Amino acid sequence: MNAITLLPDDAVGPLTSDKQLLKRGERLLEPDVYRAAIDGRIAVIKDYRRYRGTFLAPVARLLVRREARMLRQLAGWKHAPALVGVIGGLALGMEYINGQTLSSLQVADGRVFDQLHRALERLHEQGITHNDLHGTNVMVAAGVPVLIDFTSAWRTPRWRRNNPIARQLRRSDLKNLLKMRKRVTGVEVPPELAAKVAEPHWVSVIRSGWKRNYQRFKARHNVPA
Ligand SMILES: Nc1ncnc2c1ncn2[C@@H]1O[C@H](COP(=O)(O)OP(=O)(O)OP(=O)(O)O)[C@@H](O)[C@H]1O
Ligand SMILES: [Mg+2]
Question: Per the UniProt record, which residue ranges are transmembrane (predicted)?
Answer without folding.
Answer: none
